[in-house]
Amino acid sequence: MKTISELLNTPGTTIIDVRSPMEFSSENLPGAINIPVDLIQARVYDIKEMPAPYLLYCRSGARSGMAASILKQAGVEEVYNGGSIYDLITEVK
Fold it and tell me: Which domains are seen in the chain, by residue range?
């Protein structure tokens, strides 16, 4: 298993911000895509088409944890809860 820092700095990692579009527009990680947690279930097949691994984040880690659980239950592998955007910002090189 890779560390969060390794995932963030590995080309090909799909970084998904599960916050609202308004939160995403105010700040986000470079290269992140916005799929709000309430749309994760509906977008499972789209996400499966994106390159693995998948690193999810939100404001505190709660919503990204829920989204990671939804994806894992849907059979998506290599899903990681990155937690808070504020923790991840310090990890991006």
Answer: 4-89 (3.40.250.10)
Phi, psi of 44 (to 5 degrees): -50, -50
**Three-state secondary structure along 15-50?**
EEECCCHHHHHHCCCCCCEECCHHHCHHHHHHHHHC
- Ranges of residues in the chain with a pLDDT under 50 are none
Q: Strands 54-58, 79-84: parallel, antiparallel or unpaired by DSSP?
A: parallel
Which residues make Cβ contacts (< 8 Å) with residue 5, sequence separation at least 6? 91
Q: What is the pTM of this model?
A: 0.95
